[in-house]
Amino acid sequence: MKRPVPVLRLPLRPGREYESRFDREQSMLKMLAIPIASIVLFSMITTLPVLTTQPILPPFGFMMLLAWRLMRPGLLPVWSGVPFGLVDDMFSGQPFGSAGVLWSLAMLTIEFIDSRAIWRDHIQDWLIASLLIVIILLGGLWISALAHAAPNPLVLLPQIILSILLYPLVVRICARLDSWRLAT
Amino acid sequence: MAPPPHRRPGFSRKAQYGLFATYVIAIAGTVVAALLLVISVADPSGFSALRAVGAEITAPVARFFNSIRRTGKDIGGNMSAYFDAASKNVALTKQVRANRTRLIEANALRVENARLRGLLRLQDDAIEQVAVGRLISSTASSTRRVATLSIGSNYAVQRAQPVRGPSGLIGRVIETGPTTARILLITDAENLVPVMRASDGLPAFSTGLGNGLVVIKPLNLGESPFKVGDIIVTSGNGGLYQPNIPFARVVRRTNEGALARPLADPANTPFAVVMKAYKGEAREAQQAVAPDGATREAAE
């Protein structure tokens, strides 16, 4: 009886072209971990060695949260602003709890907008995100002014403009992550 | 994008309650976060342990990228140094010749100064440095100007120690973790530094503006005595900061003082020296007799 010779294959690629793609399950871990990890990692960007003399780095963690929330409604629960915000507070240097409150209020605001609006497209998402980013940054300044002496709000202007312009990029990254998340 | 289907959960009681519960959790979570915020506003140094954990987690990555950034900067500097080597050599030779006489004069002054100090029996506070580290990151997205130092209590860094770089004062330590410390930069709006004009010792205070500049306010009233280009140094008044640390250079005169740019740029400083608090012993002795917050004003 002839036996097939086992072919030595380098494990470079999981030869999926020979496997059926029907009836495959998406990885539950990937589906849950990617949104959470991406938001937390984007919150940690501020700890990279970007030494600036004024606040210029956009609030990437919040922008990622907005991108997931606006692109995939129903994926993140309404209360998820609190834990993500508290994680962001560990890195941002703001008084602890400031992002916890502000991000949660932002999530509730989007929930309210979703209950009123029927359809949203990308431009409207961008508008909602821009408004929320401006409110979050000014709110963060206001909160840190409660605890410490705070600078003039005009200091935030470059950061606000940069954040609004960079939001579509964050949405693109989020969309790529989403297609990876849902890939079988 | 169409609204999500979960908004109207139909007739299922369970789904309706589930949706309701998420709203309850969201609002309760917001209230809890607001309470945490109130606590941290009332006591800004609270939760420092959590922030230290955050800094410790990300410090290895920040250290790694910081060394890459510094190497890249060194390569650029070395490359550009080749291009104008000849002209720079001529200019430097001239400068060395001019400086030599100044150096001799300065040496004579130093000797004279030492002799006069000896006559007056002034004791020099030895410049006591605690440790040398690097700035590895800053709160680049927050309005607070706080930087992270690569060393912490493992090198005996403590709260309220001044930090300086080779070109001037950087700030002071506000929180320490096991291997990192957080430094309130002099450009933060909360950081108040007693300073003086280097040329004549005019006393003043400096406050950060949060946009990379500091405001210098003189103690005396009247028209602003500053000129563009004045060099500001720390005065050592009240302890904490050693006197005569280079601080800032005036860039604009205002009505009540001047705007100045700090001499030490946190992004470009090659190292940061943590120093002992100036006149720390005197402060400790004072605290032993009358601790902060323990003495109350007499009731009227």
What this model shows, in words?
The complex is a heterodimer of chains A (184) and B (300). Chain A is an all-alpha fold and 184 residues long. Chain A has one domain. Helices cover 60% and strands 0% of the residues of chain A. The radius of gyration of chain A is 21 Å and the shape is elongated. With 300 residues, chain B is α+β, with helices and mostly antiparallel strands. Among the domains of chain B are: 88-124; 129-278, Beta Barrel (Thrombin, subunit H). Chain B contains four helices and 13 strands. Chain B is globular. The N and C termini of chain B lie far apart (66 Å). At the A-B interface, α2, α3, α4 and α5 of A face α1, α2, β2 and β3 of B.
In short:
The complex is a heterodimer of chains A (184) and B (300). Chain A contains 6 helices and no strands.
Indicate the topology.
The complex is a heterodimer of chains A (184) and B (300).
Chain A: H1 28-43, H2 60-71, H3 81-92, H4 98-116, H5 122-147, H6 157-182
Helix pairs in contact in A: 1-2, 1-3, 1-6, 2-6, 3-4, 4-5, 5-6
Chain B: H1 13-42, H2 48-83, H3 85-120, E1 129-133, E2 135-138, E3 146-149, E4 162-165, E5 168-176, E6 181-185, E7 192-197, E8 203-208, E9 214-218, E10 231-234, E11 246-253, E12 258-262, E13 272-275, H4 280-289
Antiparallel strand pairs in B: 1-13, 2-3, 3-6, 4-5, 4-13, 5-6, 7-8, 7-10, 8-9, 9-12, 10-11, 11-12
